Inverse folding.
């Protein structure tokens, strides 16, 4: 059950990312209080877990959540500042940090399994980028979102990539230029989150979404997620040409044959993932 944590998981509660597996779901909880800053160590830990999940047949859906009061305040500014004393004034470390962050966000998008962000609290800068990079996002009614880099002389250029793909341009620019925090309702209006729920129901609602997705053919979900992001960058003509070919290949899959047969026979399909 979702509320049962194994002995190994209890021993790992000091980890920067706490992993919990149940019912085809992998819950990855950020654990870097108080602000869940995306330090290099945390990003590396999250990336390792995501890469392991890619090849884990038992994992069908991934949830990224938080064990702190803040979902994530973005990059660890103190960590970044410490490297200014180096001969290159921190350039090499800054480059490492931003490239690692870019790899993390692209891994989420490219992952053949859906990733759901579960937000309770504030998600700012790269934390907001993390939310916008996930396939789905569900938050509490007291959550807030911002790209406040402009307030400290550091424009949120990398968060802008995910934000501008999740929202309309003018909405993204509003957040990027003002640096102000928007509430959950505005974030839903902008397209950053899918749903807003009361705090006491957040885990229940997110787990329900994950369980519904986990019940589908893993092959079909993989095909669909990849096709969604690829066609979104194409012209209308190219998108239809590409997705027509995807549909044909999907039709040739055993799971499609089984799913259609089960629908006609009015029975529950048995997915093989092939």
């Amino acid at each position: 059950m979702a509320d049962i944590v194994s002995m190994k998981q209890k021993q790992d509660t000091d980890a920067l990312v706490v992993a919990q597996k149940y019912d085809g779901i992998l819950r990855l909880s950020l654990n870097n209080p108080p602000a869940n800053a995306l330090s290099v160590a945390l990003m590396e830990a999250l990336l390792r877990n995501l890469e392991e999940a890619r090849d884990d047949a038992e994992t069908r859906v991934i949830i990224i959540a938080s064990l702190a009061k803040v979902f994530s305040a973005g990059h660890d500014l103190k960590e970044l500042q410490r490297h200014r004393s180096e001969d290159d004034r921190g350039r090499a470390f800054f480059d490492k940090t931003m490239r690692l962050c870019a790899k993390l966000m692209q891994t989420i998008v490219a992952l053949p399994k859906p990733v759901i962000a579960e937000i309770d609290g504030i998600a700012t800068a790269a934390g907001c980028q993390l939310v916008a990079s996930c396939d789905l996002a569900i938050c509490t009614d007291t959550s807030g979102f911002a790209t406040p880099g402009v307030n400290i002389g550091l424009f949120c250029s990398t968060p802008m990539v995910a934000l501008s793909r999740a929202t309309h341009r003018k909405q993204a620019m509003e957040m990027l230029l003002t640096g102000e925090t928007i509430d959950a309702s505005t974030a839903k209006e902008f397209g950053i989150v899918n749903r807003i729920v009361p705090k006491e129901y957040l885990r229940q609602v997110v787990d329900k979404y994950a369980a519904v997705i986990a019940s589908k053919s893993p092959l079909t979900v993989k095909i669909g997620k990849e096709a969604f992001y690829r066609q979104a960058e194409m012209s209308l003509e190219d998108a239809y040409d590409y997705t027509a070919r995807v549909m044909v290949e999907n039709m040739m899959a055993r799971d499609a044959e089984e799913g259609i047969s089960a629908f006609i026979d009015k029975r529950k399909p048995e997915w093989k993932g092939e």
Q: What stands out?
A: The two ends are 27 Å apart (CA to CA).
